[in-house]
Amino acid sequence: EAEPPVSVVDKVVDKKQSRPLAEEYLKYLWSPEGQEIAANNYLRPRDPQILAKYKDRFPKVDFLSVEKTFGDWRTVQKTHFIDGGVFDQIYPGK
């Protein structure tokens, strides 16, 4: 799905001792209140109820699923991103 990438980076939160804060922030992003804030700022909410509320702003989109289209991530990695794989064959910088 199309969504901003967010994560807790272990090495960073452990070094800064900020894991609890980072994890709570992530939980908040996916809460109804966080999804409402996202939608108000033109980020497509993942919560179906919030998305329905903003349906005029976010038309229906058929998302591509890596797993459904290409298989499991192990196969994708071996096929597309291994040295000499599909990415190397189509990327002009290689």
TrEMBL record:
Q: Per UniProt, which keywords does this protein have? A: Periplasm, Signal, Transport
InterPro entries on file: Thiosulph/SO4-bd (IPR005669)
Q: Does the keyword Kinase apply?
A: no
Its domain of life?
A: Bacteria
Listed GO biological process terms: sulfate transmembrane transport
Gene Ontology CC terms: periplasmic space
GO-annotated molecular function: molecular carrier activity
Where does the UniProt entry say this protein principally localizes?
periplasm
Say if the entry is tagged with keyword rRNA-binding: no
Q: Where in the cell is it found?
A: Periplasm
Which SUPFAM superfamilies does the UniProt entry name for this protein?
Periplasmic binding protein-like II
Family according to the record: Belongs to the prokaryotic sulfate-binding protein family.
- Would you tell me the protein name for this molecule? Sulfate ABC transporter substrate-binding protein
